[in-house]
Amino acid sequence: MLAADFSAFGDAARRCMAAGCTWLHIDVMDGHFVPNLTFGAPLVKALRAREVDAILDVHLMVSEPEKWIQPFRDAGADALTIHAEATTHLHRVLQQIRASGALCGVALNPATPISVLEHVGDMLDIVLVMTVNPGFGGQRFIPAAAEKVSQLAEWREVNQLQFRISVDGGVDAANIRSLVADGASILVAGSSVFGHADGVTGGVDALNRALEP
Question: Is residue 3 in a domain?
Answer without folding.
Answer: no
